[in-house]
Amino acid sequence: MIRKKKSQVFNAEGVSLTLGSDATATDGGKRDFLKIVLGGGLVAWIATLMYPLFSYLNPPRQTEVEVSSVKVGPLNDIPRDSGMIVRFGNKPVLLVRTADDQLRAFSAVCTHLDCTVQYKSDLGMIWCACHNGRYDLNGRNVSGPPPRPLEVYRVVMQGDDVHITAAA
Ligand code: FES
């Protein structure tokens, strides 16, 4: 009589006829275990490398900070024919004091690809360094790739202090 019990075969007298050694079966088990451990380690290592990359490519959204007015400071601290970047909530605003002493404020975010614009006194214009985009002192795009005018903000004097408010 021949019976099978897992990997063992018995002859008619009940003597075990081993098909493979137990050592081979145990080696196979160790090999499978090592494959699982190394495979898991490899997956964890790849995930460790990829997570910062995905985080960089998909940054968390900044929450919008609602601000209706920002105090810039005394007018005397702002030289004529100059521009300065002012934080308006989490948006940059360009405040320009022109050569003929007018105050104007615009979004400092270029309408082309979101670079920060600046006032160039030698050009008498607002200029974007990224692709040489230019805006006049009314915020209108006049040359280069910017497709739209800059968003306009209002400038209000309260006593000697300059305030910037969102345009109504
Ligand atoms: S981002 Fe300003 S001109 Fe391109």
How would you describe this structure to a colleague?
The protein has two domains: about 5-55, no CATH class; about 70-165, Rieske [2Fe-2S] iron-sulphur domain (Rieske Iron-sulfur Protein, 3-layer Sandwich), CATH 2.102.10. The model is unreliable at about 1-5 (pLDDT under 50). It has one helix and 13 strands, in the order βββαββββββββββ. It is α+β, with helices and mostly antiparallel strands. FE2/S2 (inorganic) cluster binds next to loops.
| Annotation field: number of helices | 1
Overall shape = rod-shaped
Largest sheet: 6 strands, antiparallel
Question: Which small molecules are bound?
Answer: FE2/S2 (inorganic) cluster
Unreliably modeled segments? 1-5
- By CATH, the architecture of the largest domain is named 3-layer Sandwich
CATH superfamily label of the largest domain: Rieske [2Fe-2S] iron-sulphur domain
Q: What gyration radius follows from the Cα positions, in whole Å?
A: 36 Å
Structural category is alpha+beta
CATH topology of the largest domain: Rieske Iron-sulfur Protein
The sequence of SSEs as H and E is EEEHEEEEEEEEEE
Q: What's the number of structural domains?
A: 2
Question: Helix content range of the residues, please?
Answer: 10-25%
Relevant terms:
168 residues, alpha+beta, Rieske Iron-sulfur Protein, four-stranded antiparallel β-sheet, 1 helix, 13 strands, rod-shaped, disordered N terminus, binds FE2/S2 (inorganic) cluster
Describe the structure in brief:
The chain is of the alpha+beta class and 168 residues long. Helix content is 21%, strand content 35%.
